[in-house]
Every structure is written in structure tokens, then in C-alpha cells.
Amino acid sequence: MDSFEVNKIIAAVLLVALIVIGIGKISDIAFHVNKPENSAYKVELEKNNSIEKSKTKEIVEKVDIAALLASGNVDHGEKVFKKCAACHLVNKGGENKIGPALYGVLGRKVASKADYKYSKAMAAYDKNWTFEEMNGYLKKPQSYIKGTKMAFAGLRKEKDRASVILYLNQNSDNPLPLP
């Protein structure tokens, strides 16, 4: 291919680009639209008051754990725990799977199983597994302890959480007394 043919190809591409731009300009002139002075949707922004109000509205959710646990039962908890069984065992002497074995978890320090490698977030969480802690964690693990490796979405229903907590409490050498 000689340079004359390359010049013809480049000229054709440039001509098409100029025609497209020219048609756009001509259509803008032919179909002129008067824009309204005021926008159709008026968006009013609240000043910093809304930000301050939202910060003060962050309510720490207090749960009546006794009433919550009263709504659950162990048999239902065993059924709901099947969702957890893919990653956890709850029987005595059970081995760790993807997650740690949960026999006797209530009352135990968080991230305390020596033969399991916890995430940094779990290892740094310096609390014990109480009924309240377990309830908050089971509701939405990723937001309760930020940085946890547990990829479970959580249990939204209170009855399901209460039942699983009762089931976990039952599977222990020293179950915690119910509140």
C-alpha cells in the first residue's frame, strides 16, 4: 500500500468526523431548546445541622436479652445452626473446619481457641462471648467486628438468633445461666 492510499483513508475518516460534528451543530441551531431559568427539581440542602443530627441519632441498640432468649428454643436453634454447620462444628471434641469449633463458646474469651488462626480483628477483640455479644455478632458479623474473616451475612430474625444462642449454650460442659 502506497502513501497515497493511506492519505485517502485518513482523509475519509476526518471527513466523516467533520460531517458528524457539523450535523450536531446544525441540529442544535435548528432545534433550539430554551432552558428554564429555574430547575424543575429543587434540591434544598440542609447545612451541617443534618450531619450533626445524624451523628447524634446513632443509637446504641440495647436488647433485652432475657426477652430475646425467651422467644427462642433449642430445637429450632439446632435447625437454624445447619446454616453454620458448613463452617463450624458444635459437638464436644469437634475439629475446626473453615471456622473454629464452637463447643463451649459461650462464656469463653473471643478468639481463644489455640489451634485456630483468627483474623486480626477477632484476635484484637478483647471480650468474652456473652449472650449479648453473640446476639450482636450473629446479627451481622461483618459490621459487628469490622475485619472479621467470617463471610456469613447474619441472622436477621430475632427468634433464629435466640434459638442458635440457646443451642450453643446447651452445647457446653458449663452452660451459662439464662438471664
Question: Could you characterize what this model shows?
Answer:
The chain is mainly α and 179 residues long. The protein has a domain of 106 residues: Cytochrome Bc1 Complex, Chain D, domain 2, CATH 1.10.760. It is 45% helix and 0% strand. Helix 4 crosses helix 8. The radius of gyration is 31 Å and the shape is elongated. The relative contact order is 0.14.
CATH topology of the domain at 65-170: Cytochrome Bc1 Complex, Chain D, domain 2
Question: What is the percent of helical residues?
Answer: 40-55%
Element pattern in H and E = HHHHHHHH
Which geometry do the CA atoms define?
elongated
Oligomeric form? single chain
CATH superfamily (homologous) name of the domain at 65-170 = Cytochrome c-like domain
Number of helices: 8
Question: What Rg do the Cα atoms give?
Answer: 31 Å
DSSP summary, beta strand count: 0
Tell me the CATH architecture of the domain at 65-170. Orthogonal Bundle
CA-CA gap between termini:
89 Å
